[in-house]
Amino acid sequence: MNDTYENPLITRYSSKEMARLFSSDSKFGTWRELWIALAEGEKELGLNITEEQIDEMKLYKDNINYDIASQKEREFRHDVMAHIHAYGVQCPKAMPIIHLGATSAYVQDNTDIILMKKALEILEKKLVNFMDKMSRFAIKYKDLPTLGFTHFQPAQLTTVGKRATLWLHDLYMDYENLEYTKSNIKLRGVKGTTGTQASFLNLFDGDHEKVKQLDKIVSKKMGFDKTYPVTGQTYPRKLDSDVLHVLSSIAQTLHKITNDIRLLQHLKEIEEPFEKNQIGSSAMAYKRNPMRSERIASLARLIIANNLNPAMTASTQWFERTLDDSANRRITIPQTFLACDAIIEIAINVFSGLVVYENVIREHVNNELPFMATENIIMEAVKKGGDRQELHEIIRQLSMEAGKEVKEKGKRNDLIDRLLNNSNFNLSKEEIQNVLKPENFVGRAPEQVVEFIEECINPILSKYKDVLGLEIELNV
Where is the Adenylosuccinate lyase C-terminal domain (predicted)? Predict the structure, then answer.
């Protein structure tokens, strides 16, 4: 039976690793970890909770009775209470102390924070693998001259590797954003219904220090050094906005990279991987469409658009909390992570097999280089006694004539022949050919590639050397 909508992010695009992280097992398993941490903390601080009760909770931590939870949720219309009761069915001794003093946001919000942090760690690992692929590509082609483009019109030469370094620099900025955001994520902790910790103050008979200790104990048990110092019922929804902004930034970078690859593939200079049995078009059998890059662009726009959701949610919350954030966040946060995971994986796949057609690139360079070299040719002719102003006017006229040959008649650029036949220039063919060497027009592009990668990228790759080497095979 296939009569129900399936999310293509799960069935087609994202990794099992990311899909598993946002699964029900992961979510509700983390709820149970939080309930165990709370009970342990409360016991350590003197509440009447037994080791037997905690052991019982641990025994069923990973054995979630979804059937009971679903039945209870239909009855209660409240997912947290449904899972408390389902857990209690398995743990009758612990039932009286599960969720003691807590509000729903204790498990919901803390779990969301924990999962987002783990998801950022997954993306971090894949992002540095992509940076590794791209830096190798940049180094390999750092010296290969290619046409630069401004306004998608031929401009001064750059190199294939230097262009890739521009892409890599954007990824470098994304990496820095991710690291900053990840390192500043805190747990919501144990804050109570409106963030005042009133219920816990009652539990500990007005002992403020024990309430503060409980917040720290639970945070430490869940792997966090810090909790947000103050909250309402929820953690600051600005965190969602900050996190999804990181994902949006990655999406912006990958969309730009794949835009360039699609344009270069049209020029037949670069081509994304195309497998032996892959079909480009159902009708035009010869086609080799850049479907990987197009898929990245498509999902990237979803991620960029999704970034608006947490921004609107953060800005429209009422006082200590409203529930109009809930349904939106359930969809937006996991799906944006799944999509971001997918585009980085596809990008790794693309750069594992990106093909560079050097002869086509050289032909394009040679077609345009005579125009670009006119200033250098004038300077060489002036060295041999020519008049700069006079030569400038002559070469302007000859360039116009050569341009007509190319545009109106579809012929090759014959500017060099016209210059050789003009006695005012007094330059031999060999002298002009020396001027026309493409490597003379790329400036410091090769050096910039090496310097940037050595100074900025290699330290990152060295830090993550144990996780590099990731290869990705597409699901479809």
Answer: 369-453
- The 10s digit of each residue's pLDDT in 70-95 is 999 999 999 999 999 999 999 999 99
Would you call 151 a catalytic residue per the annotation?
Answer: yes
User: Is 407 exposed, middle or buried (CB count within 10 Å of its CB: 0-12, 13-18, 19+)?
Assistant: exposed
Average pLDDT, the chain: 95
| Catalytic residue flag (residue 364) | no
User: Residue 251: what are its φ and ψ, rounded to 5°?
Assistant: -65, -40
Positions of E strands within 208-336: 270-271
Phi, psi of 30 (to 5 degrees): -70, -35
> In this structure, are residues 425 and 419 in contact, taking their beta carbons and an 8 Å threshold?
yes
Give buried/exposed letters for 124-150 (b at 16+ CB in 10 A, else e). Answer: bebbbbbbbbbbebbbebbbbbbbbbe
Q: Assess whether pLDDT exceeds 90 at residue 280.
A: no
Dist CA 445 CA 430 (whole Å): 26
pTM, whole model, 2 decimals?
Answer: 0.93
Dihedral angle, C-alpha 342, 348, 353, 358, nearest 10 °: 120
| 96-122: pLDDT as tens digits | 999 999 999 999 999 999 999 999 999
Catalytic residue among 24, 70, 281, 428: 281
Q: Please determine, for residue 9, whether its predicted confidence score (pLDDT) is greater than 80.
A: yes
> Using N-to-C axis directions, what is the helix angle for 291-306 and 326-352, rounded to 10°?
150
81 and 72 Cβ atoms separated by less than 8 Å = yes
Domains of the chain plus CATH, in order, are 16-90 (1.10.275.10), 104-143+158-193+235-353 (1.20.200.10), 360-440 (1.10.40.30)
Report the candidate in 436, 439, 404 with the shortest Cα–Cα distance to residue 420: 436
